[in-house]
Write a structure and sequence with these properties.
Elements lengths: L14 E5 L6 H12 L3 E4 L2 H7 L8 H25 L4 E4 L6 H4 L4 H7 L4 H5 L4 E5 L20 H15 L5 E4 L5 H20 L8
């Protein structure tokens, strides 16, 4: 049995997770938000995209997927902790979080947390808020986009969206950004929710860069 990890330390401000199914727009929203807000926010990039773009192997074999998700978890966790150490006074905007691995884990999602020596409750506690961008696949729309490492079919994207939402919706500060046929309207709503959350958690009103 793996040793339980200690509870995480705060970065001094807060951690907000934009997440959701493939093709939801979370990365676009996070990048736009960072550009608008400036130095009050630091973006934590998505570990899986970094790793797969760098040549990390991927496979559909269950044991291989288990190994991949354990590796992504460790990289994601440490990316967050590095940014928290480097920028203790900034809000961390995490492109996905450590809970995501449970949705990609073949079999019982609870086994994922056992394998990484944690629990769903402890991983949710790492974050102060979750903003969930529902996949365009939930509206029957194709999810092709600019991410070359995305390989999910439409049906797979729907299943992932549902599994991710099942995990993240247990967070006490969970906000859903539903699918919209207008991507612009969806992202605009997502940015409004991000601003509201940051104002609530950060203690100061968000001001755009001049």
């Amino acid at each position: 049995m793996m040793k339980r990890r200690p509870k995480p330390h705060s970065n001094g401000r807060c951690r907000i997770v934009p997440t959701g199914g493939p093709g939801g727009g979370k990365t676009t929203a996070a990048d736009l938000f960072r550009r608008e807000i400036g130095e009050r926010v630091v973006l934590v990039p998505e570990a899986a995209t970094m790793m797969f773009s760098g040549g990390f192997p991927r496979s559909h074999h269950p044991q291989a997927v288990h190994a991949v998700q354990r590796a992504i978890y460790e990289v994601q966790r440490n990316l967050e902790d590095v940014q928290a150490a480097l920028y203790p006074e900034r809000v961390l905007l995490c492109d996905r979080g450590t809970v995501d691995g449970a949705a990609y884990w073949p079999g019982n999602s609870g086994d994922f947390f056992t394998q990484v020596g944690s629990t769903l409750e402890d991983e949710l506690a790492r974050y102060d808020a979750v903003i969930f961008f529902e996949s365009a696949a939930m509206g029957g729309m194709q999810i092709e986009g600019g991410n070359p490492v995305r390989t999910e079919t439409l049906d797979e994207a729907v299943q992932l969206d549902m599994r991710l939402r099942e995990q993240w919706s247990r967070h006490p500060r969970f906000v859903l950004v539903p699918h919209n046929v207008s991507f612009f309207k969806k992202i605009s709503y997502g940015l409004k929710m991000l601003t509201s959350i940051m104002n609530e958690l950060g203690g100061k009103r968000v001001r755009k860069k001049r």
